[in-house]
Design goal:
This protein has about 180 residues and is mainly beta. The protein has a single domain, classed as Pnp Oxidase, Chain A (Roll). Helix content is about 15%, strand content about 45%. A seven-stranded antiparallel β-sheet has the order 3-2-6-9-10-5-4. The chain has a four-stranded antiparallel β-sheet with strand order 1-11-12-13, with no helix packed on it. A two-stranded antiparallel sheet has the order 7-8. The longest helix has 9 residues. The chain is globular, with a radius of gyration of 17 Å. It starts with 12 loop residues before the first helix and ends with a strand. The relative contact order is 0.20. The structure holds flavin mononucleotide.
């Protein structure tokens, strides 16, 4: 069987990230709390795992403060951002910042911080955490979820987009 040119070598991080960027995703903020402090980070590694029981997963960088808080607290919220919430995607991706500073949020029945006005929200208990290279693969059991009619923020090839009508996708900005 002939080897296809350009597909045989193990990729470096940049090449891998760029290729994965073709796989279009939504954008979420993973939020939790630890010792009374809210934590949150932007994530697009969200995947549905199981319908019965309802499970999802997110892959969280081992260096992330939010990952440490999620694993310690044992619960987290997935806030799926709308097309109007790009500023939240930017805010929660800035390394080292107090992401919740001066930001209004609500508390779930479990006392976890959640962002109002999202396209969907999943309230989760940590079901399992697996090693995944430089990330933790965190499986969450969905305790409650809700959705709104708002259109989602979309991430494709390293840029934010919003879904347009009649095939007119709108590039919001270059990241
Ligand atoms: C669009 C987008 C998607 C991201 N997805 C992830 C992800 O799935 N997992 C992850 O660990 N980091 C992801 N990041 C990077 C984190 O948001 C970033 O490292 C953040 O500053 C971590 O914050 P923390 O250290 O306060 O938890 C993403 C960033 C962007 C802009």
């Amino acid at each position: 069987m002939p080897t296809e040119a350009g597909l045989a070598e193990a990729p470096g991080p940049r090449v891998f990230r760029d290729a994965m960027g073709v796989f279009t995703t939504g954008v979420a903020v993973i939020s939790t709390e630890l010792d009374g402090q809210p934590h949150g980070m932007t994530a697009n590694s969200l995947t549905s795992v199981s319908l019965d029981p309802p499970l999802l997963l997110v892959c969280l960088d081992r260096r992330s403060r939010t990952a440490a808080a999620v694993l310690s607290t044992g619960g987290f919220v997935v806030n799926v951002l709308t097309r109007r919430q790009r500023h939240l995607a930017d805010r929660f991706a800035r390394p080292g910042r107090a992401h919740f500073a001066d930001l209004p949020f609500v508390l779930t029945p479990d006392g976890l911080p959640a962002l109002p006005g999202c396209a969907a929200r999943f309230e989760c208990a940590v079901d399992a955490a697996h090693p995944g290279g430089d990330h933790h693969i965190v499986v969450g059991r969905v305790l409650a979820c809700r959705r709104s009619p708002e259109s989602p923020l979309v991430f494709y090839r390293g840029r934010y987009h919003r879904l347009g009508g009649a095939g007119h996708d709108d590039v919001l900005a270059v990241s």
